[in-house]
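Worked example 3 (structure in, sequence out).
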């Protein structure tokens, strides 16, 4: 569909002009999807699959479709809608995007409507729908609500319960929900007085309003409310800017909850449903208040008891060389590191309680703790069964004691008592990046701007390690689980147990013991043990692509392709614009995403010399300068299916002098 052409209907003449998909990308015969304009008032765009609705845009509101999030007053609409209700005609036309002469609308064979524009270098995706499983028509059945940020995605509207509990538990939501408490006006008679006195409205926000709506004349917001309240058959109403008053007199279908934007919807419920919510809130509030009071009293008692047992102050930090481990530690190597005593750490972590455990690192568990002064800490406890753990422990103390940067995790001190070896860090409330990135719900909390800030923050931390610190440090285990996030979502590189130092102009080293995490290791390091600044750059490239795609490299599988192969094909076909998790497309900057994909591919080049150094990487991320073209990464040559039978691709598992640590 080119600019100035239209989708339209003319009821008296029996005409209906629609946009029909191809059967496949190579077969132009009519496919199963069609895009039409509905004769509802106001109208809406509708994609059908055969004769069944597949996706709808929501009603037209003068300059926008109200069911498409991300379109606000600042949006310059390329659409024009003209509807003549009296004549039974309407047309939906598309004009050129501002500043771009070449653009078009297409309906793909998979049922996606796309708007693309050309910037002189290639075609860019401007808009796409549907983008989420919640966008599919009637996904949660009658009176069901599809929540984009939730998994499972379907819940019942307030005051409703699943029609079939068994089907609902199986993930079959098409049967929808039924009202839990019958409306009072239905129980008595449909009089205006009874309707007003016994039923109430529950107000929802950020929703795509249901289908099967009706326009209720020229009413203002208050009149809209009164009109629905006085009509017992009115199940819901919405007053939408650019439309006016919409009412629903039938079941509510295809209702979606957005993360942002959307409209307000008022749902008719029996008054007892809302009264029950108020009582529950009172009960919950009272319970929480009493619980907090009891906890404070108990904490005060324990603190008083603890202090009365002490004959003299027990210092938080002690400086002692009585234990044998001190012989292995030269004082100049750990200057500025606080040494905690074991009693302080056991008290802070509730004797390493399992309830305080934050996670399991490569060399032991990590616990959350709270010191007497209220400061929260993270305690890394070295596993006694780890044969190589002591070396990594000493290495981490020596390294982090000399490194200070806002994008590196801060070491507060250490504690060594007998076989126990502990590292004490600042506690970061948002834990590690993988907690957000690979969770179907939490990933929505890091939209594209936050992800781009995280990418830049990690690069700044890497620049400090490689160039700006007094020691040149190669991390050797850069990955998403080693990127921690503070309360402002600022990234901090952690876990320096495998890091190596180099002096002066030393750029490269090698090891007989290859350690790290599969998927993140550069080819030259995995195959020969040679590591350098460029091997960290390779790991950063993998991490960057994971942040964009939202999938873990070790678990990624798309049509049998590895993550790097998929990223390479995407860049070749669309310059990587479609690589970002589609659920975040509303927040994305396509040009910025595509540039980051290209940078990621440059970082994972087979030859270290073809990868950017850290200074060049930082420049690429903070400027709009031209980028070199990447070559196909080595690990994209073979698919996952090929790897199991091919002997051409050397893998880390074939090296006899390797120690692969589960992270």
């Amino acid at each position: 569909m080119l600019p100035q052409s239209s989708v339209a209907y003319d009821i008296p003449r029996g005409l209906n002009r629609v946009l029909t998909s191809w059967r496949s990308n190579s077969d132009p015969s009519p496919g199963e999807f069609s895009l039409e304009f509905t004769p509802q008032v106001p109208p809406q765009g509708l994609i059908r699959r055969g004769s069944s609705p597949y996706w709808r845009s929501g009603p037209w509101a003068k300059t926008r479709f109200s069911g498409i999030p991300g379109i606000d007053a600042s949006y310059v609409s390329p659409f024009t809608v003209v509807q003549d209700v009296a004549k039974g005609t309407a047309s939906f036309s598309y004009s050129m995007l501002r500043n771009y002469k070449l653009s078009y609308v297409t309906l793909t064979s998979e049922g996606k409507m796309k708007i693309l524009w050309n910037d002189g270098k290639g075609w860019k995706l401007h808009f796409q729908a549907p983008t989420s499983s919640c966008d599919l028509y009637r996904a949660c059945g009658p009176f069901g609500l599809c929540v984009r940020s939730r998994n499972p995605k379907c819940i019942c509207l307030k005051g409703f319960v699943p029609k079939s509990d068994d089907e609902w538990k199986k993930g079959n939501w098409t049967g929808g929900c039924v009202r839990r408490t019958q409306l009072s006006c239905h129980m008595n008679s449909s009089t205006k007085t009874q309707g007003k006195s016994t039923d109430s409205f529950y107000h929802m926000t950020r929703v795509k309003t249901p289908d099967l709506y009706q326009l209720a004349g020229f009413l203002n917001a208050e009149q809209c409310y009164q009109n629905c309240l006085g009509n017992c058959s009115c199940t819901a109403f919405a007053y939408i800017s650019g439309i006016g008053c919409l009412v629903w007199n039938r079941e509510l279908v295809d209702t979606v909850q957005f993360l942002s934007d959307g409209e307000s919807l008022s749902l008719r419920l029996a008054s007892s449903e809302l009264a029950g919510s108020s009582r529950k809130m009172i009960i919950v509030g009272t319970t929480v208040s009493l619980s907090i009071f009891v906890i404070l009293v108990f904490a005060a008692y324990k603190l008083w008891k603890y202090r009365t047992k002490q004959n003299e102050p027990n210092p938080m930090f002690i400086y002692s060389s009585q234990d044998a481990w001190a012989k292995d530690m030269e004082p100049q190597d750990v200057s500025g590191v606080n040494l905690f005593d074991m009693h302080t750490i056991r008290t802070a972590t509730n004797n390493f309680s399992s309830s305080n455990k934050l996670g399991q690192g490569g060399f032991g568990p990590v616990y959350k703790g709270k010191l007497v002064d209220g400061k929260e800490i993270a305690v890394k406890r070295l596993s006694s069964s780890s044969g190589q753990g002591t070396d990594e422990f000493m290495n981490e103390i020596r390294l982090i004691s000399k490194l200070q940067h806002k994008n590196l995790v801060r070491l507060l001190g250490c504690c060594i008592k007998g076989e126990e070896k502990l590292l004490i860090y600042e506690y970061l409330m948002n834990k590690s990046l993988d907690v957000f990135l690979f969770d179907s719900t939490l990933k929505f909390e890091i939209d594209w701007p936050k992800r781009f800030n995280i990418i830049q923050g990690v690069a700044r931390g890497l620049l400090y390690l490689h160039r700006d610190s007094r020691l040149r440090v190669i991390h050797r285990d850069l990955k998403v689980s080693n990127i921690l996030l503070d309360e402002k979502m600022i990234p901090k590189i952690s876990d320096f147990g495998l890091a190596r130092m180099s002096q002066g102009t030393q750029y490269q080293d090698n090891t007989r013991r290859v350690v790290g995490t599969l998927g993140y290791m550069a080819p030259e390091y995995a195959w020969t043990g040679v590591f350098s600044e460029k091997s960290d750059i390779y790991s950063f490239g993998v991490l960057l692509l994971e942040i964009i795609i939202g999938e873990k490299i070790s678990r990624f599988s798309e049509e049998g392709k590895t993550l790097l192969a998929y990223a390479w094909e995407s860049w070749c076909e669309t310059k990587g614009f479609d690589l970002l998790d589609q659920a975040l497309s509303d927040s994305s900057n396509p040009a910025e995403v595509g540039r980051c994909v290209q940078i990621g591919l440059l970082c994972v080049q087979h030859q270290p010399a073809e990868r950017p150094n850290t200074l060049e990487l930082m420049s690429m991320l903070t400027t709009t300068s031209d980028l070199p073209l990447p070559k196909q990464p080595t690990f994209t040559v073979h698919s996952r299916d090929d790897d199991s039978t091919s002997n051409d691709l050397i893998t880390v598992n074939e090296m006899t002098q390797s120690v692969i640590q589960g992270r």
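Notes: The radius of gyration is 30 Å. The chain has 15 helices and 35 strands.
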